[in-house]
């Protein structure tokens, strides 16, 4: 079985590979919270389509580093930390939608429960569908129920984690290094999913700042 295993090129996004939490100095932390809160309030109070589209495409035009400088080191269970994670997931998907859809489809077959329904991807989920899913989740932060958008992203992460684990199992004998890389990636997806789910619960109780 291992000899027949298709070894896709792995994501190379350094921000995702190096993902980890961390505390920020007080000043940077304050700026992160202030910018995230101001942005979200401004857009949700007056959700102009052209503004939302610019926010969706912000990392396409300016790169993920522009977002990272503001929010990457904020607490996982905070508004800036949540926004950072959603943007990071979108960049990851758009970097290689074919591979992302491959992981997602495998994860869907391995997942028991309602996560595929919560995530809201069309089935079958190809590169086009998973790219559209990433945009809908991010758009939902600004135009819909913020907690629902976080829950959708969390479900997406859990499915991706399942997909990575399943493919890692296939690769374990014939490609142990690939299996290790995918197992690590699965853990990171799972961690981000847990963080987003916790943030959704905090938002519903007015506890996400």
Strand content: under 5%
Apparent shape: globular
What is the succession of H and E elements?
A: HHHHHHHHHHH
Spans of at least 5 consecutive residues with low confidence: 1-12
Structural class: mainly alpha
Largest sheet: none
Mean pLDDT: 88
Measured distance between first and last alpha carbons: 49 Å
- What's the total number of strands? 0
**Helix fraction by DSSP (H/I, runs of at least 4):** over 70%
Can you count the helices?
11
> Radius of gyration from the CA trace?
17 Å
Q: How many domain modules? A: 1
Spell out the blueprint of helices and strands.
Elements: H1 14-17, H2 26-45, H3 49-56, H4 58-62, H5 64-71, H6 79-95, H7 97-110, H8 115-119, H9 127-143, H10 146-171, H11 176-204
Helix pairs in contact: 5-6, 6-7, 6-9, 7-9, 7-10, 9-10, 10-11
Organism: Herbiconiux flava
Protein name: DNA-directed RNA polymerase subunit beta
Q: If you had to describe this structure to a student in words, what would you say it looks like?
A:
The protein has 209 residues and is mainly α. The chain has one domain (23-204). The protein is built from 11 helices and no strands. It has helices spanning 14-17, 26-45, 49-56, 58-62, 64-71, 79-95, 97-110, 115-119, 127-143, 146-171, 176-204. Helix 6 (79-95) packs across helix 7 (97-110). It is globular and about 50 Å long. 34% of the residues are buried. This is DNA-directed RNA polymerase subunit beta. It comes from Herbiconiux flava.
């Amino acid at each position: 079985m291992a000899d027949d295993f298709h070894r896709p090129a792995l994501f190379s996004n350094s921000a995702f590979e190096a993902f980890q939490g961390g505390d920020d100095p007080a000043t940077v932390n304050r700026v992160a919270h202030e910018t995230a809160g101001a942005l979200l309030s401004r857009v949700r109070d007056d959700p102009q389509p052209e503004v939302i589209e610019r926010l969706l495409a912000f990392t396409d035009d300016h790169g993920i580093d522009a977002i990272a400088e503001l929010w990457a080191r904020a607490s996982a269970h905070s508004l800036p930390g949540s926004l950072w994670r959603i943007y990071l997931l979108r960049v990851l998907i758009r970097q290689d939608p074919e591979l992302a859809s491959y992981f997602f489809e495998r994860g869907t077959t391995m997942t028991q429960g309602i996560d595929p329904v919560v995530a809201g991807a069309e089935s079958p989920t190809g590169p086009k569908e998973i790219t559209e899913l990433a945009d809908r989740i991010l758009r939902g932060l600004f135009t819909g129920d913020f907690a629902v958008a976080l829950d959708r992203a969390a479900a997406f992460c859990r499915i991706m984690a399942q997909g990575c684990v399943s493919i890692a199992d296939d690769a374990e004998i014939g490609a142990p290094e690939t299996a290790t890389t995918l197992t690590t990636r699965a853990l990171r997806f799972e961690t981000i999913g847990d963080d987003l789910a916790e943030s959704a619960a905090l938002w519903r109780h007015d506890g996400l700042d």
